[in-house]
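Hey all, quick one. A colleague (J.T.) asked me to put the S-adenosylmethionine job into the tracker so the inputs and the structure tokens live in one place instead of scattered across chat threads. No bug as far as I know, just bookkeeping. Sequence used:
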Amino acid sequence: MNDVNKSDFWEELYRNNTVAWDLRTPTPAFIDLLNSEYFLNKKKMLVVGCGYGYDAIEAAKKGFNVTALDFSDTAIEFAKTLAGKEKVSVNFLVEDFFNLNTSFLNSFEIIFDYVTYCAIDPARRKEYADKISQLLKPEGLFAIILFPVENRVGGPPFAVDVNEATNFFSEKLELIISTDKINSIKPRKGREFLQIYRKPNGAQS
Ligand SMILES: C[S@@+](CC[C@H](N)C(=O)[O-])C[C@H]1O[C@@H](n2cnc3c(N)ncnc32)[C@H](O)[C@@H]1O
């Protein structure tokens, strides 16, 4: 069962409440993005590996049309209850990202990832990058906050190599911003990197 590629692995962590990554609040740098010019005039969003759903719910509150998926039933149940309390609508899916229905191809104007890329099996990260680009609409944006970018062993989450990630995502997408000057919570300052990529116009997957 010790396999990050299986939903059981994540489900067990949520059931045991061993979710050290969880901020219990929307990600500060994501709130900044929601209010930024980058997201202006874009509505249809996917939050990948949404966990308890704080970011997805925050985006829905700001008027985005949000689909949010996660492997874990427990996390999505929590997220649905929270969305109900907050009186917002989010299309929450219990789904393996790699198996997302083909009807979603070329459909999202924004895809957001926080602390999900680091949870993906390093052997599948190129596949992950390819799938992100397939799901984006031409001109759509992929916003990712890479964490943790320092060398470390073990998981979850695994470490993230910024150069490697940039190479994977740049194969199909154009990098438009890459910075560590973001609003990180204190223990993560200097340990995370915001990148935004754009899918070139005319590109289909
Ligand atoms: C480290 S957690 C981060 C959760 C959330 N983004 C947050 O910041 O709290 C990684 C999440 O990705 C989900 N996940 C990992 N691999 C997945 C996959 N292949 N499909 C869907 N969800 C996946 C896990 O269930 C987990 O909720």
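Adding what we noticed when we looked at it: The chain has one domain: 7-15+30-198. The mean pLDDT is 93.
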